[in-house]
């Protein structure tokens, strides 16, 4: 930093950031507003339906569905930290966010993303134990184990995001305040700081990059072991397992691929980064319900019962007494 620049840092402090969003075209912004609004409604309603189904149906009170319910909750949170703001910005000419709001977005994206990575690994471990060690499943995957795994996911997410903020919140922002994205993405925000960001980028790689690569490697390894185990048992079972795991692997790639691309190489930002960010903030939360529930026969049956129960017109004799009296 040049002599005298410290005085400039102290005298000029950025109080807000400008978000460029996905496009500057008015026509495209209107289309994006409608499109992402519909996606967000589907994400929230779909994942809420999963949580309601898992908690209300006694047949789904197993460990796998316990993890699935927590995944749906995290998906709602992950889709909500920036999507409503992005939708509102499509209708606004000045897309700005306060400094505190920007820091809050960085906090929540890494908190929920780190937690989701651990939950996905936990679900893969659950399937590994169920298929490769079925006789020990009840012992290994006890209720206590699943509770620990869920608590671990929140703990990892918290430690992960606090470690990111520890070197971000006190960075000097004294000039540029334009973020070429629809939310405050950590690599793009740190590059706006009034200092050499090389060390910060190394820390991002060591933190986010390591977590993403480690979780991705564990997931792919578990899927490979499961496929090999099933292949030795039965070719028919192998075909069924491959069909199921192929869908899971697709979601994993769509979630981890952009994270690894953005956070393992944060030294150079590309225009495609903000498009890739859509995959782990919006598309993955809508794909998880499809992959993990609509392909599951027990979940489909339970969800059908829930929907029928709440939407089917009730007979007068089944209504509460006060309602029946009002109808007579």
What does this structure look like?
By secondary structure, this protein is an all-alpha fold. It has a single domain (15-307), classed as Rhodopsin 7-helix transmembrane proteins (Rhopdopsin 7-helix transmembrane proteins), CATH 1.20.1070. Helices cover 73% and strands 3% of the residues. Helix 2 packs antiparallel against helix 4 and helix 10 (235-264) packs antiparallel against helix 11 (273-294). The longest helix is centred in the middle third of the chain and has 36 residues, at 198-233. The radius of gyration is 23 Å and the shape is globular.
Index terms:
three-stranded mixed β-sheet; 13 helices; disordered C terminus; 328 residues; globular
